[in-house]
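Q: Make up one entry.
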Amino acid sequence: MTKRIAFLASDVDVAQSARNKLVARYGNAAPRDADVIVALGGDGFMLRTLHNTQHLDVPVYGMNRGTIGFLMNEFHEADLMERLKAAEEEVINPLTMKAMDQSGQVHEALAINEVSLLRAGPQAARLKISVNGRVRLAELVCDGALLSTPAGSTAYNYSAHGPILPIGSDVLALTAIAAFRPRRWRGALLPSTAHVRFDVLEADKRPVMADADSISFPDIDWVEIRSEPMIRHRILFDPGHGLEERLTIEQFT
């Protein structure tokens, strides 16, 4: 049976041009009626597509028409139906973030890659870190800290010298960003069931922003993060080029 495809593209010209060609060749369905969604762009657009379609039980197949394509497959126009038929599916769960700002307003967001806390002023941030209700680090002086999923472990987490996590490892990476004290603290590996809380110390003097996959909230007092197993993001990859293989390759380059 022919798959009904919904083609979505980022705003850049090369992605829009690719979408027009593919729609002319394969037709186009609304995302709610599709058997598969094809996302054309880079990793940022792929993340937005996953967020925007998470209420649909539809897999997403990305083709790279952007700058970075860790979550994307190579772009080819001619053999799309065959590639979709042979594609392998990876299922990932996002993080859910709840944060309260200094005005008392509570914000919530989901993150497929990571939740990060970043200093928003000239002085280093001071953070208290608790895991499952127990204080594990009374004070971390740093530029920030983040909690990453396996899918996001090669993104900001890896740039901050955090570990690469295998897909399906049921582990989260807690990583410091430019830690000043404890100077040698490099983070921790936590089970995916962990409930992590960051309290911002001296929040008025040392302002901190919270970010969940580029959704940002300023002047944060505290942040609570946990994995959300009830939300499943289905991502399709060409055989032999799935997330597990890409994570392995990344560690040997």
Q: What stands out?
A: The domain at 95-227 is CATH 2.60.200.30 (Tumour Suppressor Smad4). The chain has a mean pLDDT of 93. The longest helix spans residues 13-26. DSSP finds five helices and 17 strands in the chain.
